[in-house]
UniProtKB/TrEMBL annotation:
Keywords: Signal. This is Phosphonate ABC transporter substrate-binding protein. NCBIfam families: 3A0109s03R, PhnD. GO terms for cellular component: ATP-binding cassette (ABC) transporter complex. Belongs to the phosphate/phosphite/phosphonate binding protein family. It comes from Cylindrospermopsis raciborskii CENA303. PANTHER family: PHOSPHONATES-BINDING PERIPLASMIC PROTEIN.
Length: 336
């Protein structure tokens, strides 16, 4: 039986990887590219969903447990942009990483990344949701909830300020961009009174809480985190739109890691059950997965490119050939 298209059931889309000038922090030492013959140390990339000050206490116990289990020193790699982790893995400076779906498919494309595990949330789900959020005190919020947040944003974009997260964020850019804008043939770069990229889920939430923007993207997991890190800010935020479910996050390593190291990593991730360490990360477990788990995100990456081309008034011969190629690749992913 052919698999039903994810775009037909719960579509997402992709956006092109932007360049980065990411600033990584890994102690006070430099990092060396991985050597396939002998691994003396691993660097673990962590995408910037919130500030490093908030991320470090969550991740350090997990990194320490990983290091102890596999018998290889592991250091955390924090970057100011999602693309920083992708680029670090691309150049062998990071050998294993926690990605979102969108950042992973970019890493698989250009950074020799291979997903081998998937996170399971605290409630046992292998998925999460993107949101549009607004401040409860903002006059637009009641109307947006009544009309539907996505519809309200489209109809009133010229009067609104709007914040995305990061161009490589799945829920902070990719999902809402497809559902709210691309399917309605709206270019967010052209319609808003002001449009910004805040850099993280935490930043978009605070921008809304502080009335710096009218509407922003976020997700249920990051808002749950905000309840703990800044409960007063969370109380000011109202969800005005929710996406279909998104595949939960991948853990990926470089394909060129030695087989015995990959096996050690798999054994740790598939069997680690320490609730005291997992719960702060909002996980209940990590389970086996493979690259195809995130094919739904790839479908949306292709769908985005198709929509972009179709929106052009005059297609060149080159555009038409590219459109045929994109549709062919999309059909292949969808099993048609």
């Amino acid at each position: 039986m052919k698999r039903r298209s994810f775009i037909e059931s719960s579509a997402l889309f992709g956006a092109s990887l932007l360049g980065t000038q990411a600033i990584a922090t890994i102690g006070n030492r430099g990092i060396e590219p991985v050597q396939a013959q002998q691994i003396k140390e691993l660097n673990f990339g962590i995408i910037s969903t919130e500030s490093q000050a908030n991320q470090r206490p969550l991740w350090e116990p997990f990194i320490a447990a990983l290091s102890s289990s596999i018998g290889i020193p592991v250091r955390a790699f924090y970057a100011t942009q999602y693309a920083g982790v992708i680029e670090a893995m691309r150049f062998g400076q990071v050998q294993i990483a926690w990605y979102g779906g969108k950042s992973y498919i970019e890493a698989a494309k250009i950074a020799n990344a291979e997903a081998f595990a998937q996170t399971v949330s605290s409630d046992g789900k292998k998925g999460y949701y993107a949101h549009l959020i607004a401040n409860k005190s903002n006059p637009i919020t009641a109307a947006a909830k009544k009309q539907g947040g996505d519809k309200y944003v489209i109809r009133n974009a010229s009067k609104l300020t709007f914040a995305f997260n990061d161009p490589n964020s799945t829920s902070g850019f990719l999902v809402p961009s497809y559902y709210v804008f691309d399917r309605n043939k709206v270019d967010p770069k052209k319609v808003f009174k002001r449009l910004i990229f805040s850099g993280s889920h935490e930043a978009t939430a605070l921008a809304v809480a502080n009335n710096q923007v009218d509407v922003a993207t976020n997700n249920n997991e990051s808002l749950e985190r905000l309840e703990k890190t800044n409960p007063s800010a969370r109380q000011k935020i109202e969800i005005i739109w929710t996406s279909p479910i998104i595949p939960s996050d991948p853990i990926a390593y470089r394909k060129d890691l030695p087989a015995d190291v990959k096996k050690k990593l798999q054994n740790f991730f598939y069997n680690f059950k320490d609730k005291k360490i997992l719960e702060p990360l909002q996980w209940s477990a990590l389970v086996p997965a493979n690259d195809k788990t995130w094919n739904p995100i790839r479908e949306l990456d292709l769908a985005k490119q198709v929509l972009d081309l179709q929106s052009k008034t005059d297609l060149t011969a080159e555009d038409k050939q590219k459109l045929n190629d994109l549709n062919s690749r999309l059909r292949k992913l969808q099993g048609r």
